[in-house]
Design brief:
Two copies of one chain form a homodimer. By secondary structure, chain A is an alpha+beta fold. In chain A, the strands form twelve sheets. In chain A, strands 9-10-11-12-21-16-15-14-19 form a nine-stranded antiparallel β-sheet. In chain A, strands 22-36-37-41-38-39 form a six-stranded mixed β-sheet. In chain A, strands 7-13-20-17-18 form a five-stranded antiparallel β-sheet, with no helix packed on it. In chain A, β3 (about 70) and β4 (about 75) form a beta hairpin. In chain A, α9 crosses α10, α11 runs antiparallel to α12 (about 460-470) and α11 (about 440-450) runs parallel beside α14 (about 495-515). The N and C termini of chain A lie far apart (about 80 Å). The mean pLDDT of chain A is about 95. At the A-B interface, β14, β15 and α4 of A face β14, β15 and α4 of B.
Chain lengths: ~775, ~775
């Protein structure tokens, strides 16, 4: 070789290597690598960036503030911003607590806050403005790293690098300290998300030995009676410690006299309990902590600890979390842009955080009756935000997680067994019924799963529990609903009489369909009839569903754009009137035909609703509003798909593209409203795949248009279902044609069994709407009065 | 027969019958019939008159008031009067609660108050002055009947006859109602003995069905964290009910909206929880209620309920209680006057109430670590008031209840296992260490049992636990005690430095004697040395034990009659200086010989102590004072027997007779001070039999003189030990001679094995003291420096 060629060859080689490595890194990128847990942590998404396993009970995450519920005896609106404990705009971290909600409509949790510090021992957090007044520390997002099952940040006030990972019931902390003889771990058992005086009912804390602490915390708050037991193990013995009660007990005379409290006293109990553990550390010395939790006992927590992480290998736990996340996330593989992959896999990640595995490794859990039960041959789940999740998150799980769905149903049935009311959960939160929101939406979740062929639970009991729940007259206006055929607003304290009527009617339809499938025609007839109850609130003069009193008078003044005082919750008549997923055709007929439905939908998506109207709807980001359509709240989530019951399915395709691209992003504020334990993201996943479960309880998914080039669902039965979006581009968002397994598909829905049988759904997309595809009534999705 | 004889014969027959029946009733009278649970309910005895089984966890009794702990922010001295819930002088009853202390030095319990009423539903008790303002009722002692395991009273405001009986874990109520459609059972879960705002931490209450209620109550108070679960079953379905939270919860918005609270709502939780249950009753209709309790769970309570009383036969349960009481009480049979029998068997009854069987029927119990444990093959006992009971109550149980004593030791060892401090109990109260009073007196109880041959517990562990407890430096001045050889008053918060020094020294001797018996001479030497620590506080100038500071200065000003500020608790230097039961000889030598000891004893029994001095000793009745001897408190209980270490044992005989006849009676105020969970009565039993365990941990009982004509102890090994008091009369109180199994006994003590081997101890009593009997030093009881 001639020498003068050498540099040139070198140059080429370097280029080839770079190119290969770029390809390689792209090829080697797994779904895990696309998840960005920071998405949704800014503004109203209410997600948390910390470390967790799929459906893990421990969700270990930094809390950046915990504003009190009340300020000067008035409700403090800031409390809601912190319902997941973290706000991206904050500049300080209080510490790392072990339980979080993935964006709920109410805040709570934040149990067992741990904070590593250096210097003076401080037991109070201090304020964001003056972090040096407490144990909290400044931090920079530059030092932050968040992945599924891993979180890292530098606590700059202390020069400590904090890293977190987790197994199902155990949070694993790794703190890299500077050289100091003044290193501390602070344990704040007074810290709470949704924080107020009196929230902590009782705390019990023990030093078992110089590397092990146990205890429990009993709180009220959103839950009425929540017990969390824990075991905290340190990798290195603490040299001294203090268990502190910051509140004076009325009578502990003998106690205080007999054993000196404070430094090195091994047990304490009370309401305002803090602790510190002291260490000497060399430069870069790592102190590791494992925190196991249990609803049962400290013994249960120790079992969880020893069973899940019987070692001190942080990287191993992090790797196990990574590998499990990849297994779960890989159930859908997509071809799409890097940005789309980030949005998609983060959304998928967010659908796999709630409900959580509530039972201990040995099956023990604290039941609704406050007794200890054993989940025999199943995993007991808790945190069911059913008003949100019956819509899309649970249906998504029926495709991706059928065996978990069976266990979730078993969990709801044990709730039913343990309930003093003997009904299914409304909002299940640890060992509590929170009664949050309206409806009895456990039934659509169960009926949907049953209709879709999920088995492995006691079907007869599930059916009985569903019927019992729908007939439980003490529940939320149900007595009057049964008596009047609607919930009269004058007899209702909750002022959600119209919402309730609509939701009950839909839920009743799921009972009916379940009964029909069970061959219980008597029950089916009774509930198909109740499913028509929405008609009792149809106001011919306004064409809307409108609250009515017990004498038959319509609510006045009526404003279809307003929420407050209109008998609706988190929605207005314009949007909520369409919450008749079981009978779109029936409502269409009331409106006077498909054209009128289409006009109403057009009105929703194009007219402007004054901000002061939807502000009352709570819980939404301005970005979650499209015309008068409010995506930030759940009652409207199916509305974009309703054009499929009109002559213009193409408008669904247009709107879905608009929502997907305008409302969801890969930024920290990339969610259009509260994540609501996975519902906001589940909407995205379905919509990106090209279909949506408008009416859970049917086996149908209503077609929109895919938003990714190609997707493969790897089903648990070993089959795959492939979705191809041929020609997809910024402008090509309309369906030109659809085929299923090579055969043209003219109807605007596919069925669950078509997915589960495996196959290929091919969309040809175009920049021109196909105004004839699936426009005939026979091609419309299910409607009960069809 | 001639007719005129008939009336005469009839007259004779009637007379014979009457006479026979009188003889018969006397012959048929059992120990049970002599027990009068009303004794001690008046003034300072602090006993309760209600229904219980021997050592039963349920002690179901009327509460006549529950004065608040604080009145206008100041300690309310009336609270202590009600430590057993009942004061004889009261004229109203609040209701019937299920747990009581048999006269403790602090008040608590009173769980689950039930009251039957007629008329308007009232959920607050009202006041004694205006009972009609609340649910309480007037009553008359004429309508009252109290027997072991049975209590009856007429609630005159409601014309209801209330009857109570009990099994170990279940209280059984029988209420005879008038005809009414307005009958109620009131359940007050805010009621407490030792009552204050904030005492109730949490209550959870459920209606399971129309005859079953379950729930739990979590309280602080004297206990730090006490959980009591319950199941309440009604013999008749209630027609309607209300579970009421009298406190507004800060946040229960969804709750209140979802399910109508109040009438017929089946679940409630909070702090101030009451309930009512409504019935229609016909004339004299009986509504029966069974209330089972458990420290574990409502499931545990239900197990206890179904296992112990699976029926509604009140009389059967009452009979079972009677028969079990007779079995226990018949372990000592006596010949004595009716009055003496009443005093004796009531005292014996009072020694068999505490500690209580804390574990459920299946062995489950809540441990000190707040986890649920299983008492495998033993019964877990709780409520150990050891500062009181190590003296005579536990020694009495070593004779009468050896297998229970083994279980009590096992219970203390599980306490040790579950303790964060890893020491034996000080004052064990349910799942709590109350740290009440001074000393580590679990050790004398264990050592005494071991020395007396009781087995069936883990001896090695018991020994280790004893040593660990005596070496636990964090406990109550022990670090300084070990360092200085006494507790210096300047380093002590508790101001009980002299009491502590004396009690630790005695307890140390029991460790030493235990070690010696175990062949652990190293430990024995160490603790025999510590047992001499009382010498470090012997003040040659005053001849008393006197508090000293860490520099060796005596406490000034010194007053041997005062308690407060003198380094003593519940006693003064005059009495407390003799709390050296392990080494009376050693102290005698310090005093300068037996004569000086005798003089000191004479001074105690004959000099007058000003009332304002012993008032500070707390807890005593004026009747419990003899000269300067204070029988109302425990530290002096052995003093009457100390003449046996002098040349005048006859003075013991004289003093014991004086105390027995002057301080104990068959009246409602028949106790000379607080019953202290059986110690006050155990003193009586021993003294009536003629001997007393001056120094538990030796196998010796020091002889006084019998106070009953004849007594037979039926031992669990099938043998009997008989005590005969030949010639006993009002004047014949002095020993003329003593023989054991026919052989003269010249020493002033008998041993445990002499009792357990069976035999006959015969006293010849005289009205003249025998001034030579057992006067030689060789006949004196044990002293370590002998």
């Amino acid at each position: 070789m001639m020498d003068y060629l050498k540099p040139f060859l070198f140059f080429i080689c370097v280029h080839i290597l770079c190119f290969a490595s770029a390809i390689l890194s792209d090829v080697l990128k797994t779904p895990f690598d696309y998840v960005d847990p920071m998405i949704g942590t800014n503004h109203m998404g209410h997600t948390f960036p910390g470390a967790t396993m799929p459906f893990g009970m421990v969700q270990l995450s930094p809390d950046t503030d915990n504003p009190p519920f009340f300020l000067n005896d008035k409700y403090n609106p800031k409390v809601y911003e912190y319902c997941a404990g973290y706000q991206y705009s904050d500049e300080t971290i209080l510490g790392f607590s072990h339980t979080h909600f993935n964006g709920t409509g109410h805040s709570d949790l934040g149990d067992i806050l741990i904070m590593p510090t250096v210097g003076e021992i401080q037991l109070d957090p201090g304020t964001a403005a003056e972090p040096e007044q407490g144990y909290r520390s400044r931090f920079s997002h530059n030092s932050e790293e968040a992945q599924p099952g891993y979180y890292k940040v530098k606590l700059s006030d202390y020069d400590i690098v904090a890293e977190l990972t987790a197994s199902r019931h155990v949070g694993f902390h790794r703190y890299t300290f500077p050289e100091t003889n003044d290193a501390h771990i602070i344990l704040d058992l007074d810290h709470s998300i949704y924080n107020y005086d009196g929230k902590v009912i009782w705390v019990f804390l023990r030093r078992e030995n110089d590397t092990l602490i146990t205890g429990y915390r009993q709180t009220k708050g959103w839950a009425r009676t929540r017990y969390l037991y824990f075991a905290i193990e340190f990798s290195k013995p603490f040299s001294s410690y203090g268990l502190i009660n910051q509140e004076k007990e009325l009578y502990r005379g003998f106690w205080d006299r007999a054993v000196k409290q404070g430094e090195n006293c091994p047990e304490i109990a009370g309401k305002k309990i803090k602790a510190y553990f002291n260490f000497d550390t060399t430069k870069d010395e790592q102190v590791k902590i494992k925190v196991a939790i249990s609803s049962v006992s400290t013994e249960g927590a120790l079992k969880n600890l020893h069973s899940e992480i019987p070692h001190w290998d942080f990287e191993k736990v992090r790797e196990e979390a990574k590998s499990e996340w990849n297994r779960e996330l890989s159930k859908i593989q997509i071809e799409a842009s890097e940005k789309e992959k980030t949005i998609f896999y983060t959304a998928l990640y967010h659908t796999l955080l709630n409900p959580v595995e509530y039972s201990d490794v040995d099956g023990g859990y604290r039941g609704l009756d406050q007794n200890i039960h054993n989940a025999e041959n199943y995993t007991k789940y808790s945190i069911f935000s059913l008003w949100d999740t019956y819509r899309a998150q649970h249906p998504l799980l029926t495709i991706l997680q059928p065996s978990r769905v069976a266990d979730m149903i078993k969990s709801m049935l044990s709730h039913y067994d343990e309930s003093a009311h003997k009904i299914l959960p409304i909002w299940s939160f640890h060992s509590n019924e929170d009664w949050c929101m309206t409806g009895y939406h456990a039934i659509p979740v169960i009926a949907d799963a049953y209709i879709k062929g999920i088995r492995g639970f006691d079907i007869e009991k599930a059916f009985k529990a569903s019927v019992d729940s729908a007939l439980y007259e003490k529940y939320s206006g149900l007595e009057n609903y049964i008596k009047y055929g609607y919930v009269p607003f004058d007899l209702e304290f909750g002022q959600n009489s119209a919402s309730k009527t609509l939701e009950y009617a839909y839920d009743d339809w799921t009972v009916a369909n379940f009964a029909k499938a069970m061959g219980r025609n008597d029950i089916a007839d009774q509930f198909f009839k109740r499913a028509q109850n929405y008609r009792n609130l149809y106001d011919e003069s306004t064409k809307f569903i409108r609250a009515k009193d017990s004498k038959g008078n319509w609510l006045e003044p009526f404003d279809p754009l307003k929420t407050a005082g209109q008998g609706y919750i988190e929605g207005n008549a314009l949007n909520y009137s369409l919450h008749i997923p079981q009978d779109i055709k029936g409502y269409t007929d009331l409106l006077g035909g498909e054209k009128n439905l289409e006009d109403m939908l057009d009105q929703i998506f194009t007219s402007e609703t004054p901000e002061e109207s939807y502000e009352e709807s709570e819980d939404i980001d301005k970005r979650g509003v499209l015309g008068s359509y409010i995506h930030g709240n759940e009652p409207s989530h199916h509305i974009p798909y309703l054009y499929n019951w009109t002559g213009s399915p193409w408008k669904t395709q247009e709107i879905v593209r608009k929502i997907v691209t305008e409302m969801y992003s890969d930024e920290t504020d990339g969610l259009p409203g509260n994540e609501d334990t996975g519902q906001m993201s589940a909407w995205y996943i379905f919509s990106a795949l090209g279909f949506y479960p408008v009416c859970p309880g049917t086996d149908q998914y209503v077609i929109g248009a895919p938003q990714v080039k190609r997707a493969v669902i790897n089903l648990s039965n070993g089959k795959t279902f492939e979705i191809v979006a041929d020609g997809i581009s910024e402008s090509n968002k309309y369906i030109k044609s659809v085929s299923l397994n090579g055969k043209p598909l003219d109807r605007s829905y596919i069925t669950h069994s078509e997915i589960m049988n495996g196959g290929k759904l091919t969309f040809i997309l175009s920049d021109e709407p196909n105004k004839t595809w699936a426009t005939q009534e026979k091609d419309h999705p299910y409607s009960m009065t069809e």
